[in-house]
UniProtKB/TrEMBL annotation:
<feature type="signal peptide">
    <location>
        <begin position="1"/>
        <end position="20"/>
    </location>
</feature>
<protein>
    <recommendedName>
        <fullName>Neprosin PEP catalytic domain-containing protein</fullName>
    </recommendedName>
</protein>
<feature type="domain" description="Neprosin PEP catalytic">
    <location>
        <begin position="159"/>
        <end position="413"/>
    </location>
</feature>
<dbReference type="InterPro" id="IPR025521">
    <property type="entry name" value="Neprosin_propep"/>
</dbReference>
<dbReference type="Pfam" id="PF03080">
    <property type="entry name" value="Neprosin"/>
</dbReference>
<dbReference type="InterPro" id="IPR004314">
    <property type="entry name" value="Neprosin"/>
</dbReference>
<keyword id="KW-0732">Signal</keyword>
<dbReference type="InterPro" id="IPR053168">
    <property type="entry name" value="Glutamic_endopeptidase"/>
</dbReference>
<dbReference type="Pfam" id="PF14365">
    <property type="entry name" value="Neprosin_AP"/>
</dbReference>
Amino acid sequence: MVRLFLTFAILCGLYNEAYGKASIDIDMKLKALNKPALKTIKSEDGDIIDCVDIYKQHAFDHPALRNHKIQMKPSVVFGTTKTTRPNNGTSKPITSQIWSKSGTCPKGTVPVRRVSREDIMRASSPSHFGRKTPRRYDFLDDALKHKGKFNITAERLRQPRPKDRSEAILIAIGYNYLGAQSDINVWNPPGVQFNDYSSSQIWLLAGLSDKFETIEAGWVVNPHVFGDSRTRLFTYWTKDSYATTGCTNLLCSGFVQTTTRFALGAAVEPVSTPSSEQYHITVSMYLDPNTLNWWLTCGGNVIGYWPGNLFTYLKHSATAVQWGGEVYSTNVRKKPHTKTTMGSGRWPSYLYGEACFHTNVRIKDYSLQIKYPPYLSEYSDEYDCYSTKLNRETYRAEPVFFFGGPGQNRFCP
């Protein structure tokens, strides 16, 4: 009996020690993420937005940015985004977020969505909070050799695909890209499982298959990070294939925010509904040639930038651009497949008003001209679960890239 009691006491002690360390780690993460606020705004959707001194934001905790001088605005702009050609439908732009109905952040501050203890506790550890799992992009190894002659489908089918991600994308590859943009149709995909996420976004990539760099932006539904199923504005960056660097939004140091109007991670409304009003957010990412910082604009607002000294390969250009959607789940390429949907949750063949899309797809290269990409490939990791359709109603119409799908269905059991 004494031995049993001693064993029990030792186990309790070990548990309390581990719990105590975990609690301390969470407290340290919260302190790093939730900087002192000069003003706090309680949004009607439940979010708390802290207006943080722009010079004391989390970005400057990054070792590479300790002596960084903030660039308050880009020295160049991406340029015009719209076509004069007839489109297949008319969607309305989203230019604000829900929290802004409840107040504004004063000049000299940036709006930051407050992170809760519960948010961090949902992660496997505080250090993994808001981070993707590692993966490869094998086509990057010889990206500049392809020059539009690249069969992305054949290449990807020869390579191992990621075990926990499924993409349906439009890809431009083979040139040096200084920027990319599109109008991203905004939806709230139904049925996103609690441990999954579903995004519609743009990627800019450079580097090697197993050590690439990327900056990303668009909208996401991510219950595991945010604790709900709202559609939210998001960004991401990494310099080592998602292994140890980078994160979603401002959940690690790196991205420098300059706007007072948009909060990364805050909800986006209104969202599109089938056979009714359609909404989009215009997303642009582009390199400032004078500072080598990568700027992000959303809804006509300059959001901020990824400093160039975060990167090696992306310091001067990207070598691939992707537009489309991504589902994360440990149940992709498995039976039963995840029920998490992508885009609107409907097949691309349903077209405008039913399927999610990117339109006004543009790139900027060393010519400094904004142009429709001369060579594009479509690709889906799981065509029976999520698919693609680059559609042009007439030869004069603006091409529209539709993507998405329901996930688990009779063709994708």
